[in-house]
């Protein structure tokens, strides 16, 4: 039932504050991570883990890419790869590596095949982050950390992605404690997670302004998404959403790569989308955007209200008081809405985009 919403995708975007809260329920409390809620077996596996190998496809792979920044920040080496490449490659597994798969459906053929072959590769064990309790990946993994997004009907993944990021963040916090991160720091990070549902609710209020912004894309056939650090995979996710449901060709680049090729594509016909959180890479990203402007590219920005933008021409929407560790999750929401409204203007089948299936159970 779509309720008052025109499409499942829009309904699922708006459900995010609630399902993120649901995914945190019983797992954090009063600034504390309740690790006992992960279960004894999971805790025992995490105790032995020294590194992490993440495998996933599509949107779930983007969640893994964000998590790599988080794991390495607390001193845990982390590799991330798409399942279809990993499974056919000869790999060298470092001692004490945990094999982590991420999947909404738990039935993605390549991810499942990668899990099966991981068994003979010398991993410590396997953990799946999944949304479907009775799925193959949950049954075949040693332990599972469930997202509680509820059924996701729209082919374009939205609430599954943000709840995967929440589950990954919980995992990172559990590992951080094992790395000896001090309790005050941990408490602050847990509180940032606790504040997340409310922050997502506030961002959803940009809905009407984003609908208006989408008009700038309706007659375009290309778009560029830029980001640095964990906002690079968020840019990839934004580009995937746009191409998937509006059929506009969209590419994501790490902003620092612009000069190494993609800048040649930028002219007045090229919309460029970028999130501008108040983070240490801000100045670098702003100078990349300056290069875009110098070639006439049209900027569509989502920026923290503390950020001063000194560019000659741009459209921007402001986000308020976003916490640093959860910012990639919050900035995902306006990108989802932007794709949705562009698709609406183009009149595509938003919930059932052409050529795609919700669950990719064949290779
Ligand atoms: O069910 P999974 O998370 O394993 O699915 C992986 C991808 O097929 C999926 O995320 C796909 O990229 C989405 N349709 C993107 O919106």
Automatic annotation (TrEMBL):
Domain SIS: 42-181, 213-353
EC number(s) recorded for this UniProt protein: 2.6.1.16
Catalysis: reaction(s): D-fructose 6-phosphate + L-glutamine = D-glucosamine 6-phosphate + L-glutamate
Organism: Sedimenticola selenatireducens
Enzymatic class: transferase
Segment of the intact protein contained: 246 to 608 of 608
Keywords, alphabetical: Aminotransferase, Cytoplasm, Glutamine amidotransferase, Repeat, Transferase
Subunit structure as annotated in this protein's UniProt entry: Homodimer.
A GO CC term assigned to this protein in UniProt: cytosol
Biological processes annotated in GO: amino sugar biosynthetic process; carbohydrate metabolic process; fructose 6-phosphate metabolic process; protein N-linked glycosylation; UDP-N-acetylglucosamine metabolic process
Protein name per UniProt: Glutamine--fructose-6-phosphate aminotransferase [isomerizing]
Subcellular locations according to the entry: Cytoplasm
Domain of life of the source: Bacteria
Annotated gene: glmS
Catalytic site positions: 358 (for fru-6p isomerization activity)
Range of residues in the leader sequence: none
GO MF annotation list: carbohydrate derivative binding; glutamine-fructose-6-phosphate transaminase (isomerizing) activity
Entry keyword Repeat: yes
Function: Catalyzes the first step in hexosamine metabolism, converting fructose-6P into glucosamine-6P using glutamine as a nitrogen source.
């Amino acid at each position: 039932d779509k309720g008052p919403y025109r499409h499942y995708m829009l309904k699922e975007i708006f459900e995010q504050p609630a399902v993120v809260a649901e995914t945190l329920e019983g797992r954090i409390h009063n600034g504390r991570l309740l690790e006992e809620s992960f279960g004894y077996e999971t805790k025992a596996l995490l105790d032995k883990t020294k590194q992490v190998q993440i495998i996933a496809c599509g949107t779930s792979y983007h969640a893994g890419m964000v998590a790599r920044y988080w794991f390495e920040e607390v001193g845990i080496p982390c590799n991330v790869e798409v399942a279809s490449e990993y499974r056919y490659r000869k790999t060298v597994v470092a001692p004490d590596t945990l094999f982590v798969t991420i999947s909404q459906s738990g039935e993605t053929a390549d991810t499942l095949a990668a899990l099966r072959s991981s068994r003979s590769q010398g991993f410590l064990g396997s953990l799946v982050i999944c949304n479907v309790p009775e799925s193959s990946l949950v049954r075949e993994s040693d332990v599972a950390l469930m997202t509680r997004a509820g059924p996701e009907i729209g082919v374009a993944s939205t609430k599954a992605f943000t709840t995967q990021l929440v589950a990954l963040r919980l995992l990172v916090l559990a590992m951080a404690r094992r790395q000896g991160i001090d309790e005050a720091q941990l408490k602050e990070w847990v509180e940032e997670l606790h504040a997340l549902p409310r922050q997502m609710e506030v961002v959803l209020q940009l809905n009407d302004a984003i609908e208006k912004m989408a008009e700038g894309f309706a007659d375009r056939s290309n778009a560029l998404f830029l980001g640095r650090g964990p906002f690079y995979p968020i840019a990839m996710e934004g580009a995937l959403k746009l191409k998937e449901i509006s059929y506009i060709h969209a590419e994501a680049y790490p902003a620092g790569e612009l000069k190494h090729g993609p800048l040649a594509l930028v002219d007045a016909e090229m919309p460029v989308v970028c999130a501008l959180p108040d983070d240490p890479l801000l100045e670098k990203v702003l100078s990349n955007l300056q290069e875009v402007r110098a070639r006439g590219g049209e900027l569509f920005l989502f920026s923290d209200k503390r950020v001063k933008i000194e560019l000659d021409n741009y459209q921007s929407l402001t986000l308020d008081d976003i916490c640093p560790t959860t910012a990639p999750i919050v900035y995902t929401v306006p990108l989802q809405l932007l794709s949705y409204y562009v698709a609406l203007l183009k009149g595509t089948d938003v919930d059932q985009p052409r050529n795609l299936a919700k669950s990719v159970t064949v290779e």
